[in-house]
Amino acid sequence: MRILTVAQREIKLGFRNSWTYSFLALLSIFTITILLLQSGVATTEGYTDITGTVMNMILYLLPLITLLLGSFSVAVEKEDGHWGLLSTYPISTYRFLWGKWIGLITILLTMLLFSFGLAGIITVLFNQQLSIDTLIFFWLFSSILAIVYVSIALLIGALAKNRWQALIGGIGIWFLTIVIWSLLMISTLSHLPSYKMIQPTLQVLTILNPAEFVRVFSIMRIGAGSAFGADYDQWITWATGSYGVVIFCGICIGWIVASIYIGGFIWNRSDKNGRA
């Protein structure tokens, strides 16, 4: 069985699933609301307080939807016995997870395209000021978040044995990377023995959290990197440079590849232990 075959199967199942349309309705209402809020600002070019608020609102909802949708997709295959049947075909867990990733990305990007497209149309109908650049920026920001978090969701699904474990794992990762990450960073930095360790530690912690990394890079790309202070001066240099996007994509790809291959490795180990 090929990767694209798994992806096509995932897309068909995904668009038949009522959860997909529930998330689509929630995401559409949410997107329309925040873009109408953004459009009320006199200037929508560059970074404003409202832009930061909208980005934070996206960070709170989208990763949670992605984590639940992705982890449930894998956990259901195990719990309902579908994987036992699929494993009789010549397909490895790695190919299966990559196929899942492609299928889920297609579903999520379609949802985001529909939500932001509908929001853009509604803001025009309500005669609100919203630049195309702002709409594209939020869509790209959301899409990159979804692409990275789907791989993490598949890792959670590979670890989980059933829906409940997937639910707990998804909410746990969301709570860690979105809700309490700032507090953990402050606590970690405050316990460092030397001031010289603050800058490198802060940068490493930022890379370790995909949501924070995407947020910081996105804000720097629109010219508001000074908001993060002197500790990120080096990041502003490379993020806004000619190779900034290449480095950013390389780190994101590293997250995606590592998550899927770690998930496949653990899944293989658990299958071998189960047979033993």
TrEMBL record:
Tell me the domain of life.
Bacteria
Q: Does the keyword Iron apply?
A: no
Under the heading Pfam families, the entry gives: ABC2_membrane_2 (PF12679)
Q: Which UniProt keywords apply?
A: Membrane, Transmembrane, Transmembrane helix
* GO MF assignments: ABC-type transporter activity
Q: TM segments?
A: 21-37, 57-76, 97-124, 136-159, 166-187, 243-267
What do the Gene Ontology cellular component annotations say?
A: plasma membrane
- State the protein's name: Cu-processing system permease protein
